[in-house]
């Protein structure tokens, strides 16, 4: 996925939440702020 420049609209994507349900960025359309947290595991 290419980098998104500042002040540009992020492309739509979907990921599984902590319960395994698919969540898409478009699910939050119209919400002023969305906080994304990407946890990393170290092996």
How would you sum up this structure, described in words?
The protein is mostly beta strands and 43 residues long. It has one domain. The protein contains no helices and 2 strands. A two-stranded antiparallel ribbon has the order 1-2. Strand 1 (14-16) and strand 2 (22-24) form a beta hairpin. It is globular, with a radius of gyration of 12 Å. It starts with 13 loop residues before the first strand and ends in a 19-residue tail after the last strand. The relative contact order is 0.17. The model has no long low-confidence stretch (mean pLDDT 84).
- Helical residue percent band: under 10%
Specify the number of helices. 0
Following the backbone from N to C, one meets helices and strands in this order, namely: EE
Contiguous uncertain segments of 5+ residues: none
Strand content: 5-15%
Count of the domains: 1
Shape, principal axes of CA atoms? globular
Physical arrangement of strands within the biggest beta sheet: 1-2
The pLDDT mean sits at 84
Based on secondary structure, the structural category is mainly beta
Q: What's the quaternary structure here?
A: single chain
* Rg from Cα: 12 Å
How far is the N terminus from the C terminus? Answer: 24 Å
Described by strand count, sense and barrel closure, the largest sheet is: 2 strands, antiparallel
Number of DSSP strand runs: 2
């Amino acid at each position: 996925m290419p980098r998104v420049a500042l002040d540009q609209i992020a492309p739509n994507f979907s990921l599984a939440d902590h319960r395994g349900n698919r969540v898409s960025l478009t699910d939050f359309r119209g919400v002023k702020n969305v906080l994304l947290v990407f946890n990393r595991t170290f092996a």
